[in-house]
Design goal:
The protein is mainly β. Helix content is about 5%, strand content about 45%. It contains 1 helix and 10 strands. The chain has one helix at about 10-15, and strands spanning about 20, 20-25, 30, 35-45, 55-65, 70-75, 80, 100-105, 115-125, 130-140. Strands 3, 5, 6, 7, 9 and 10 form a 6-stranded mixed β-sheet that branches. A two-stranded antiparallel ribbon has the order 1-2. A two-stranded antiparallel ribbon has the order 4-8. The N and C termini lie far apart (about 40 Å).
Length: about 140
């Protein structure tokens, strides 16, 4: 039974969308109405460990609106921090804990159009960062 516990490596391979007893159902659509919410969840892995066996990771989310060949900044949400100050005391990178991050953004204020969400993960321990993009459309209500 995988409820309320971290899966071991083999179990996680068999059930990649189950995290601590919660099953995520991925959606492959990229078009949303303004009544929808854009919800994303992802795993930060290979984070460097600080002295306390915890990561020090910051995640930033910036939305850009795409029109023709131009792109303009639209909105940024508050950064997320995952460190000894924000993670549960039992969190341990050496025991295999991973950072489970995500964002939910209501699309009510988004005009119809094409968008790019830039997700930047910065590992403050290793001084490395990576950015990944999510492209999506908003049309109608």
């Amino acid at each position: 039974d995988s409820r309320n516990r971290r899966l071991n490596f083999e179990e996680q391979l068999d059930e990649p969308y189950v995290w601590w007893g919660t099953k995520l159902t991925p959606s492959f659509r990229t078009s949303f109405g303004r009544r929808d919410k854009l919800s994303l969840t992802f795993v930060v892995y290979n984070a460097a460990s600080a002295v306390d066996d915890k990561p020090d990771v910051e995640i930033q989310y910036a939305f850009y609106r795409r029109e023709d060949s131009a792109e303009t900044f639209f909105v940024r949400t508050r950064p997320q921090h995952f460190s000894a100050d924000t993670l549960r005391r039992e969190f341990s990178l050496s025991s295999g804990d991973l950072v489970l991050a995500g964002q939910e953004m209501p699309l009510a204020s988004f005009p119809d159009g094409h968008y790019r969400l830039a997700i930047t993960v910065t590992d403050k321990v290793s001084q490395k960062s990576i950015t990944r993009d999510v492209v999506f459309d908003v049309a109608g209500s």
